[in-house]
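Exercise 7.
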Amino acid sequence: MTSSLANRYRKGKTVELQALATVAPLAGWAIHSSLLARRLASARRDPLTGLHTRAAWTTRAERIIRRYRKAAVLLIDLDHFKALNDTYGHAVGDAALVATADRLRTWCGHNGTAGRLGGDEFVAVIHQLTADGTTALTAALHRPLIYQGSALPLAASVGVCHVSGLPLPALTDALAAADGAMYAVKGRGRRGSQISR
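Solution. The predicted structure, written as tokens, is:
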């Protein structure tokens, strides 16, 4: 190889290495950003049910309450969940949580959003709630859980707060009222819904 050809070869390799040194960190940052975005998105979703976590749900709920004067906040607690877990095992308990989440998500549809607060406690906010809507949700949550060919009882207590009934349309007040209504249902033997007054 002549010296001028060797020089051109070395210069070409130097340019390639410089380009690679420039591009490699950018590719690394792109991969890092993608992984970070995935982690952030998964932190906003409950890993078992796929519903929004408390923080992600709260953001959406506050927006719905500001936008829709007839919005309603619902608090849902599975009845006898500990007994279900203790009797049939945690896999059945997880299946009950997933089924409840799916039913709640379907019920909300495009008219609201659902979340899992933790354990066997769920929450939803919808643009407007009718008596038929409450009845439909209660019926959906009380359908048996089909697990490995067996129909297992599933039930929930639902507390409802119509935001328009509050002095100020604040999510914290709506959640407190829905919580009180839910415990009123549990106090009278569970399996149903209660609307806060």
